[in-house]
Design brief:
The protein is mainly α. It has five domains: about 120 residues, no CATH class; about 150 residues, no CATH class; about 60 residues, no CATH class; about 120 residues, no CATH class; about 80 residues, no CATH class. The protein is about 70% helix and about 5% strand. Strands 1-2 form a two-stranded antiparallel ribbon. A two-stranded antiparallel ribbon has the order 3-4. It is flat.
């Protein structure tokens, strides 16, 4: 159609020039010999020198052009003069005369027409393919330019935003540095004040100590003067009464001895209490020092907090800078490796539901996700068209649940059927998890590990086999609280592969697993007994609680002690905390429904600590 439009633009062509042969009746070889102006004087680089010399000699000869060639060249010149080369498709218009000249050439040379037509068709197909490719790439070129402009705008916006954030962070950093400097100055001022106060306290202490010593000396002098006055009064009274002169020296001597003893005691007290500060002043100074110390600790904490926040801000600023650099690098890589975006709207033609369903599937998804959606739709359609699936066989490399020989019917389940199946699976999974929790699984593994150790202890030769009696003794040592019937069940489970006459038990094989990971019946019996014993223990606890609907911590502890008299305080607190799911100090204020408490205990590791009363009586009877 494009070629037809070009032909319609061109003026009407002249009649095809007539064909003319050379004088000898063969095709003219003029282009190789003539020396006209239109002849190209280049030569093939692979020709020999002798050929070049002969061609040069022949070029000197003046041989006229064939008339048909002159007519074609004249026609070409006229057609090129008619063209308007200022239009957008000037190159295509310029190609049209050459194409018509080539068609004239093909039509007149009948012998070479098939080969020349094939050459022309191949060139036309190549040109058409190139035009289609260019036409398809034009929207991509515009899109690349648009994406490049958008990316440049985003980069500028990010740079502006980062500049604002960096400036804010720098201002906040300067503010924090100033605040830290102020805190340092305030700390130095407070330290100076503390030192000044310490010096003042020391000076006050020395002054009070001196005053205290001077006061004591003054009191001693006053006592001496008072004693002298009393002695003088006594002498005057004795002189007046005319008492015996012999008694006076004796009394004076005794008084002097008493004075000496008093002076010794006074000196001892002065020596003991010389460094003592009045309690009121000491308490006042101690309070001031405590307040200053507390204030200093508060300032230290505030400074440490500010330092930590400053380090955090520095780390955030560093991470922001790294993130900015990473974004810029990714943007550059995206610009370098930008590929044309596929036309995903074409997928609506092959997707069931048409453009509406494809619009719902493709909404909000990236190209990578759209490829996954398209593959899923194609794969789902192929699966729906298949009636049977070939089995993969029963080899070891095939997963256990996919082993099958032959063909399997395609049930073609709908989405609703699959959802219902998944709901049933989740119901079974939740029910199973409620029976055996993760903690209980580890406890059961610990019980099995302890049993293995007891069995190995009974087998010093490490032969891997034990007699029935040795096995029973090891079971009794590992599970001292189990009933006799439970022990017998485990012994029967250990002999399920043995004949009645065989005495030895291969205890190591009891703990192996099959290829699907399932345990032996012996281990499965241990796990089931663990759950059954816990359920019986909690059932007995429920009976001891009576008709209570809600229970507090004290009633629950009393019920545990009744059910299990040998339980210790630590285990009791653990069980009560498990029932209330709070700390030990909060259980006294909690009241929960009995069923809720029992469900929580059932989900945890709750076991009997001591034998039950009925079990003790049975054990005594067995031992007797």
């Amino acid at each position: 159609m494009h070629m037809n439009s070009l032909k319609s633009i061109l003026p009407k062509k002249q009649k095809t020039p007539s064909f003319q042969l050379s004088a000898r009746g063969h095709w003219s070889t003029w282009p190789a010999f003539a020396s006209g102006q239109t002849v190209l004087k280049s030569h093939k680089p692979c020709c020999a020198p002798e050929e070049r010399m002969s061609s040069n000699k022949q070029a000197l000869l003046t041989i006229p052009k064939p008339r048909y060639l002159e007519q074609l060249e004249s026609y070409l010149r006229k057609e090129l003069q008619y063209l308007d080369l200022t239009k957008r498709n000037s190159q295509e218009l310029r190609l049209q005369p050459y194409r018509e000249i080539f068609e004239f050439f093909i039509d007149n040379f009948k012998t070479y027409k098939p080969l020349l037509s094939a050459i022309k068709n191949e060139y036309e197909a190549t040109l058409a393919h190139q035009k289609e490719t260019i036409h398809a790439l034009e929207p991509l070129k515009a899109m690349v330019a648009t994406v490049s402009e958008e990316c440049s705008q985003q980069i500028l916006a990010l740079q502006e935003k980062e500049k604002v954030e960096v400036n804010m962070l720098k201002q906040e950093k300067q503010h924090l540095l100033k605040f830290i400097d102020n805190m340092k100055e305030e700390k130095s001022s407070l330290q100076t004040q503390v030192e000044h106060l310490q010096t003042s306290v020391a000076e006050e202490y020395a002054r009070y100590l001196n005053e205290y010593g001077a006061r004591k000396l003054l009191l001693a002098k006053l006592n001496d003067m008072h004693n002298e006055q009393l002695n003088m009064k006594q002498h005057q009274v004795q002189d007046v009464k005319g008492e015996d002169v012999v008694k006076l020296p004796l009394a004076l001597k005794i008084a002097q001895q008493d004075l000496t003893n008093a002076q010794v005691k006074l000196n001892a007290m002065i020596a003991d209490c010389g460094d003592v500060v009045p309690r009121r002043e000491f308490e006042s100074l101690e309070k001031k020092y405590s307040d200053l110390q507390q204030e200093m600790e508060t300032l230290k904490k505030d400074f440490a907090q500010l330092r930590k926040e400053y380090q955090t801000l520095l780390e955030i600023q560093r991470e922001t800078a790294e993130e900015r650099d990473n974004f810029f690098t990714e943007l550059q890589q995206a610009q370098r490796s930008c590929t044309p975006r596929p036309n995903w709207a074409k997928c609506s033609e092959v997707i069931p539901g048409g453009a509406d369903r494809w619009g719902c599937l493709a909404e909000g998804k990236a190209s990578d996700q759209l490829v996954d959606v398209l593959l899923e739709e194609i794969g789902t359609r192929l699966l729906k068209e298949m009636d049977v699936f070939p089995g993969w066989g029963k080899g070891d490399k095939v997963p256990v649940y996919l082993r099958h020989e032959g063909e399997m019917k395609n049930k073609k389940l709908t989405k609703k059927d699959v959802v219902n199946i998944l709901k049933d699976i989740w119901k079974e999974k939740i029910a199973l998890e409620q029976q055996v929790g993760e903690e209980q699984y580890h406890i059961q593994n610990q019980l099995i590990s302890n049993l293995q150790k007891e069995l190995a202890a009974c087998d010093p030769s490490n032969s891997g086999s034990l007699t029935r009696e040795q096995f029973r003794m090891a079971m009794r040592e590992a599970f001292p609280l189990k009933r006799q019937d439970s022990i017998q069940e485990l012994i029967d489970a250990s002999r399920y592969k043995l004949d009645c006459t065989e005495e030895l038990i291969d205890y190591k094989s009891l703990f192996k697993e099959d290829e699907e990971g399932n345990p032996e019946p012996f281990v499965a019996k241990i796990r089931s007994q663990y759950i059954r014993e816990k359920q019986e223990y909690l059932r007995e606890l429920r009976n001891n609680l009576g008709d209570l609907i809600e229970v507090n911590a004290e009633d629950l502890k009393a019920a545990f002690c009744t059910t299990d008299p040998d339980i210790d305080d630590q285990t009791l607190d653990t069980y009560v905390g498990l029932a209330y799911q709070v700390g030990r100090e909060q259980t006294d204020q909690e009241v929960v429904p009995v069923d809720t408490a029992l469900e929580r205990l059932l989900a945890g590791d709750v076991r009997r600590v001591g034998p039950a009363a009925r079990e003790e009586s049975k054990t005594d009877c067995v031992e007797e």
